[in-house]
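QA checklist item 7 of 12: single-chain prediction sanity check.
[x] sequence parsed
[x] length recorded as 224
[x] structure emitted
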Amino acid sequence: EFPQLQPQLIEWEGRAEDVIFALDACARHAGEAHVRYEGGRCFFRSLRKMEPAYPERPFLLKEKGVYLITGGAGGLGLQFAEEIAREARGARLILTGRSPLHAKQSEAVERLRSLGALAEYRPVDVTNRAAVGQLMDEIRSAFGGCHGILHCAGVTRDAFLHGKTPGELEAVLAPKLAGTFYLDEASRDHELDLFLLCSSVAGILGNPGQADYAAANAFEDAFA
């Protein structure tokens, strides 16, 4: 959004009085966004192609397993829900979202039930600490605990950073920052097999108009 600026994140573990030399060296590599000094060496962050390492034993969803999917009525959340419903016989699926149940969500829940899942939708604000804690307590009371959390909730308010309001920033940051923290906190006494955070490549590459969204996803990457 501001091509005339070239910001850098510099990680420095040397003596404070020597940091001026690191700054001078980094200025000669202004195109490097993330620089780390470690063990007397300088490292630049870069992207490289990786071939996924498939485990010998694939992750298995539990029969009658209990899975919480935030943003569960959205496109990505529903894709996960349908996959779980097909792969785990008799799965218990708790879908959450910010809005009350409406026709589209009712149809999605019925589709999951037709696949054999015990599915329900609950309007829960994941940025509300008490509401998240209450939800996890209710899951334990009803099912004995939760086996997996898939945190798909997210919000975008696309606009250049200089025009964003504090309220717009908070709306985008809160689900991925506060929501992630509260879900982790409230599930620590559940024996989870899976805690999945749905991040975005925007957290690494950035995207004009999505500075807040990029920051929120970078947080999820770091938290994971």
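[x] summary fact logged: The mean pLDDT is 92.
[ ] second reviewer sign-off
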